[in-house]
Write a structure and sequence with these properties.
Radius of gyration: 19 Å
Order of helices and strands: HEEHEEEEHEE
CATH class: Mainly Beta
CATH architecture: Sandwich
Strand content: over 45%
Number of helices: 3
Structural class: alpha+beta
Shape: elongated
Number of strands: 8
C-alpha cells in the first residue's frame, strides 16, 4: 500500500513538473549575455550596494537566426552565475544579491531577473542565482540593456573583486 501511494505521489509530481516545463510553449533558442563589473574593497555590511552596468549588448540577432519576431511568444530568465575573474573568492561574504534589467530606451521600465537571498555559508567559488518570471523580450530586442547588480554583504569585502555575471535566457514560441 505504501509503495502504491509513493508511486502515485511520484507520478503526480512528475506530471505537474512536466506541465510547468512545457507551459510556456516550445523553446526556440537561448540567449547568453555576459557582463563584467568591479566590486570595491572594504564595503560594509550595513548598506545595499548598487553596481550599474550600462549598455550591455544582447547580440539578439545572432541568437534569433531565421526565427520570425512574431513567432517568439516571450523571453524569460533561465540561469545566472556570478564568478570572480582573476581571484579566488569565497562568495559566502555575500548575504543577498539581485540583478535588474533596465530598458535603455525607457529607464522606468525595469524588471528583477535574477536573485539569491539565502546564500550558504559554505565556501563557494560562484554564486548561482534563481531566475524570476519576468518577461523581458521587449528589453532584449533593444540590442543593448542596462543592468543593475545589487549586493548586500555579510562580511566586509576583502579587496577589489573583478566579477563576471553570466546569464542565460530562454525564448519560447507562441502557443
Amino acid at each position: 500500500m505504501r509503495l502504491l501511494l509513493f508511486t502515485l505521489g511520484l507520478f503526480s509530481l512528475c506530471c505537474s513538473w512536466s506541465s510547468c516545463v512545457t507551459e510556456g510553449g516550445e523553446v526556440l533558442f537561448d540567449v547568453d549575455i555576459e557582463a563584467d563589473f568591479d566590486i570595491a574593497p572594504a564595503l560594509n555590511t550595513f548598506e545595499t550596494f548598487y553596481f550599474p552596468i550600462n549598455r550591455v549588448p544582447t547580440n539578439i540577432s545572432a541568437f534569433v537566426g531565421t526565427t520570425q519576431r512574431d513567432a517568439i511568444g516571450r523571453i524569460l530568465p533561465a540561469r545566472a552565475d556570478v564568478t570572480a575573474v582573476f581571484t579566488d573568492i569565497d562568495w559566502s561574504i555575500v548575504q543577498e544579491v539581485s540583478v535588474w534589467m533596465i530598458s535603455t530606451q525607457d529607464p522606468d521600465r525595469r524588471a528583477e531577473i535574477f536573485y539569491q537571498d539565502q546564500i550558504s555559508l559554505n565556501n563557494q567559488n560562484e554564486l548561482r542565482l534563481f531566475s524570476s518570471n519576468s518577461e523581458v523580450s521587449d528589453m532584449i530586442f533593444e540590442e543593448a540593456v542596462n543592468l543593475e547588480v545589487r549586493f548586500r554583504f555579510r562580511n566586509i569585502t576583502p579587496g577589489e573583486i573583478r566579477s563576471r555575471l553570466q546569464m542565460k535566457f530562454l525564448a519560447f514560441g507562441t502557443e
